[in-house]
Design goal:
Immunoglobulin-like; 13-stranded mixed β-sheet; six-stranded antiparallel β-sheet; 4% helix; elongated
Length: 695
């Protein structure tokens, strides 16, 4: 027995022992002469776990233990503890997310190995990938690679002479990030300073490939592969930390608690659970022979981000992508090629080809599926409609020698066979030709659809008050109480769990006071106006902004489709803590050199783009914003009874890229990846501004 904690003797003189241990969790029953009579084994850890042996599916590994599976009877029993280091033995790394025990079996160089690279971190990559060789039924440590800051052993004084120059592993993590490689060069199952190499660098997650190559999702800005250069007589692979093969450049850190792992296939593909540049970090991605080739959007990656979204409403929608379940599997009889599987925090799993084709969602989102609560477990029962429940942290995937693919579900540590993968077929290559005429037709369709929506609803009007007293531009909005507030954005749903996120609630009002036009915005987002301004005449591409459209010519045709003289756009944002206000006027008589805004398929010309920042007053407070601008700067002469075309809206971004454009009247503004579409003015979709006397 191990670590007896509670003892009692029953009425039959049997000794019951509650053991404080995890390998295994056990209550044992003994005869008083010391004979073991029975053992009751506890449940799996929170989130399940365990790995099937790919070469022998009667063997199952879980937190340093081996179990025997009887596939005929459907039973299992623990038969060995393969990793229980005693005093003086090398323990597993002790940093969070790096401390997994040997669980995933690998076979290389004629030897069985074990790693913890898929079972150390519930949501992200392992900070340290450890490798053990299995000899005489015991997992013996032979190599490791990862973040030195995550292993207290390497912070000891004996290793200090090997630390990189300027690095202090006991100091501030942000200033002293260091990676390391260790190989047991003398086969004594211990880590000696002479066996460890260090490099000052930021590390991501580390995985071990079937050939025992170590793969780092990030070392600074590169994903690297470290092949074993040789093996010691005892089977320890030796790695050269200075000779990593570059798999990808421009790799990115996770934006939340999910991702940071990489897999390498045998035919040139690298899959990353955080896509590299130029793709967004909120996506999975793939690189072929060093060139980024694909990304697949994961809007809510990771554990905590998955608390925000509503349930999925379409096939292939990713929510809460976290960690890899294991290496590639290749279904026999299919031309899909190697597949890889990513865990979802909400009780489902996502399967992809190595080149980025979505294959399937396995199991259901917890908010949609049936719970795993069947009264009787039956072999071969269909589980498609079930959910693994949220926080199913430790599922794994294995392909056995007979070609079958099995999952270990997170939560109950149940074995599930995945059928039908052999039926996957790729569609034949088909040329896809996109012409300028087709793009123009698509653009016209969106504009026409929005015009039809407005016609069916009735065109909106915004009442612009001609105020006797100007509002104080202070961002407090207490002097806008009687204004005509129009809705800009009320989309979205409340967060699912453990979050204060709410639907958007953005509204705006406009007024004239004296010789100035005033506007107020209620957004609830105090960071709305983060904008890099790196494109001097196009801050509509580089972050958030306030957006005002005005048709200042009172005699212009209200049914016009194209902008005319007097139509203008005032875009206001903050760049480097200073207000930036640009006035765009697409039609100005006498212009000889308009400002072009181009994409590969067309150009939109704006006759003048003027910086009028020195004439605009802007103040924000707690997500509310106020601005004022001289009427003269706009060429606007306001009077009661006047009706003009106009619109108000906001741009949202991440500080360097615009992600959304939303306006009160014109809802055909979803495009944020085509410069001309974002620059041009569409007065036919603006609403009516009605200028009225009073507050």
């Amino acid at each position: 027995m191990n670590n007896p904690n509670g003892l009692t003797i029953d009425e039959t003189d049997h000794l019951w022992v509650a053991e404080t241990d995890f390998s295994p969790k056990r209550v044992s029953v003994w005869a008083l002469d010391g004979k073991l009579l029975k053992a009751f084994y506890g449940p799996s850890q929170y989130g399940g776990g365990g790995s099937l042996d790919p070469k022998d599916k009667t063997r199952f590994y879980y937190t340093g233990m081996e179990c025997r599976l009887d596939w005929q009877e459907g039973t299992n029993e623990p038969i060995a503890v393969i990793f229980r280091p005693g005093p003086g033995d090398l323990q597993a790394p002790d940093g969070w997310g790096s401390n997994g025990l040997p669980e995933t079996p690998l076979y290389a160089e004629g030897r069985p190995y074990m790693t913890n690279c898929y079972t150390s971190n519930p949501t992200n990559g392992a900070g340290i990938a450890m490798l053990w060789v299995v000899r005489e039924g015991i997992a013996r440590p032979v190599a490791a690679m990862g973040r030195a800051n995550d292993w207290s052993l390497l912070k000891g004084d004996a290793f200090k002479p090997g630390w990189p120059q300027g690095a202090d592993l006991k100091g501030d993590l942000g200033q002293n990030q260091t990676v390391f490689a260790w190989s047991d060069l003398n086969d004594d199952e211990q880590v000696q300073p002479a066996e460890v190499t260090f490099a000052k660098a930021t590390g991501g997650g580390f995985t071990v490939m079937p050939d025992l190559a170590m793969v780092a999702s990030r070392i600074d800005d590169r994903a690297l592969r470290f092949p074993a250069t040789r093996f010691t007589p005892g089977g320890a692979p030796v790695y050269d930390l200075g000779a990593g093969e570059t798999l990808a450049t421009g790799v990115q850190a996770p934006t939340t608690s999910g991702g940071d792992q990489a897999l390498v296939s045998g035919d040139g593909w690298t899959g990353l659970t955080v896509a590299p540049e130029p793709f967004g970090a909120a996506s999975l991605g793939g690189v072929y022979q060093g060139v980024p080739k694909w990304s697949y959007l994961s809007l809510w990656p990771g554990l905590h981000a998955s608390h925000e979204p509503p349930p999925p409403d379409r096939p292939g929608e990713l929510i809460g992508t976290t960690r890899l379940l294991g290496g590639f599997v290749t279904p026999p009889g299919s031309d899909a090629g190697p597949l890889w599987c990513v865990n979802g925090k909400q009780g489902n799993l996502y399967l992809f080809t190595e080149d980025g084709l979505f294959v399937a969602t396995l199991f259901q989102d917890v908010r949609l599926g049936r719970l795993w609560a069947m009264p009787v477990a039956q072999r071969d029962m269909l589980l498609n409609d079930l959910t693994l429940h949220d926080e199913s942290f430790w599922p794994t995937i294995t392909q056995t020698v007979d070609g079958k693919v099995y999952l270990v579900d997170g939560g109950r540590t149940s074995l599930v066979r995945v059928d039908g993968l052999e039926s996957i077929r790729r569609l034949p290559p088909t040329p896809l030709t996109v012409t300028v005429d087709m793009l123009q037709a698509a653009q016209a369709h969106f504009l026409q659809s929005e015009a039809q929506r407005q016609q069916a609803r009735g065109q909106s009007a915004l009442r612009v008050a001609l105020r006797g007293q100007a509002p104080t531009v202070d961002g407090k909005l207490d002097d806008w109480a009687g204004a005509d507030w129009v809705t800009v954005d009320k989309r979205g749903v409340a967060a699912y769990f453990e979050s204060n996120s709410r639907p958007y609630d953005v509204s705006a009002a406009v007024a004239v006071a004296g010789d100035r036009l005033c506007a107020a915005f209620r957004t609830g987002d105090q960071d709305l106006l983060r904008n890099s301004g790196e494109i001097a005449n196009a801050p509509f591409k580089t972050g958030g902004a306030l957006d005002i459209m005005i048709g200042a010519d009172r005699v212009a045709d209200p049914s016009r489709h194209d902008p005319v003289a007097g139509d203008e756009r005032l875009l206001v944002t903050v760049v480097k803590d200073k207000a930036l206000a640009l006035l765009y006027r697409p039609v100005v008589a006498g212009t000889k050199e308009p400002v072009p805004f181009s994409s590969p398929w067309r150009t939109a010309n704006i006759d003048r783009v003027d910086d009028i920042s020195d004439q605009v007053t802007l103040v924000g407070a707690e997500g509310n914003y106020e601005l004022s601008v001289p009427l003269e700067a706009l060429g606007l002469k306001a009077s009661a009874g006047l009706t003009l075309k106009g619109d108000v809206g906001v741009l949202r971004g991440n500080g360097f890229r615009t992600m959304q454009r939303i306006h009160w009247s014109n809802k055909a503004t979803g495009i944020t990846a085509d410069v001309p579409s974002e620059a041009e003015l569409t007065p036919q979709l603006w609403g009516r501004w009605e200028f009225v006397a009073g507050q």
